[in-house]
């Protein structure tokens, strides 16, 4: 049983973190880099123990642990170490005529004390990737470690590594059950980052609303894959099989269901079955590269779905309760679109090793309509070599991301933002986007004391109205025209203060 954090300590931890932040401990860039190096050392030192823990909890292969967890964190840390100086620099902006003379810039500043709430399916990277962004931006952070009983071994190892490697003045953690979660959410944070399902997302949003705390929610959803007749069937099948069944299908961006052109439907399903066997063998329960569902709740959910839809089952589906084993399962609805839409597999995000497939034959418009009719997915995968088809899915659907001719691999490109839209989440992170997410972009306008135009102030004479209306009028973006406008207004303003010109304006006002 995982030892829970004493409830009274949670409030004290937040108070201590806020004291560290208020003292400016995380403002120097070198101080932030020092904690980033601590995270890196923690990953390198803890890799063997973390890999063993995930093998115990999820039957996760050690190489998969590095590929989908530790390697991503190390890459994220290095990216922030490489670019933090550039990202944290002032960004100068054009100063409008209404604010002339002066200079304008934005400066990224940390929010303060951030709360990071992780989940069990990828318990290392969904905690540490946002933590890297929080630290890089200059925040202190309280981490809520996963605690639903699915990855207790891994959580215990993470807690030990946090205590050993990370500066407690900058990072602290909480672990335990529902009472710990409620106590954490009762605290006042300056930013909350949460990965989980819709239920936890709503609970976090409600708690954040009490203090008007900004939040990022990474929630998942039913991510579709579309395979048209121009795709390379064998490669598409292999990539979809890999994306759908890595981590036993417990991946928020996995292809949740597949639309395939009826012209190649049977060929594709045959290639998909062959790909699953090539990946995990004829007996996937014996494969060292195939995981397990996280807990008995997930196991019985998968088992019930298989039973409900077994008349469409064309491959796999074997189960073993004692080992929480569910074999990769393919369900082929062929052209029975009504049965597909009403399927139990389409009611909610599957989040397991089950993959429904349906054929389309009247062009891609019905597929587009079907995708738009559902909540916006976290990802969309289109397999096609026909550029107009690809463009239609990119421009006429809304999703957190789109990948063409592959799936799930967008997680490994830290130059792209990762996040959902609508029901699949709000906000994004990874790489520079993480730094921006955990930073407030503060606007700074620095004025000078010279050229304090009297036309700005009351009373609003006719000449003042004439001049100020032209000063605030919209100016085209063309650099030459903008420069001319600045010179002209500045010249008029200067001339307006010359005695003869002032007398002229005074006469007009009279």
Automatic annotation (TrEMBL):
Signal sequence range: none
Homology family: Belongs to the aldehyde dehydrogenase family.
Protein name: Aldehyde dehydrogenase
GO BP field: aldehyde metabolic process
Pfam families listed in its UniProt record: Aldedh (PF00171)
Domain Aldehyde dehydrogenase per the UniProt entry, residue ranges: 14-444
Keyword Oxidoreductase in record: yes
Annotated InterPro entries: Ald_DH/histidinol_DH, Ald_DH_C, Ald_DH_CS_GLU, Ald_DH_N, Aldehyde_DH_dom, Aldehyde_DH_NAD(P)
A GO molecular-function annotation: aldehyde dehydrogenase (NAD+) activity
The entry's keywords: Oxidoreductase
PANTHER family in UniProt: ALDEHYDE DEHYDROGENASE, ALDEHYDE DEHYDROGENASE TYPE III, ISOFORM Q
Repeat in keyword set: no
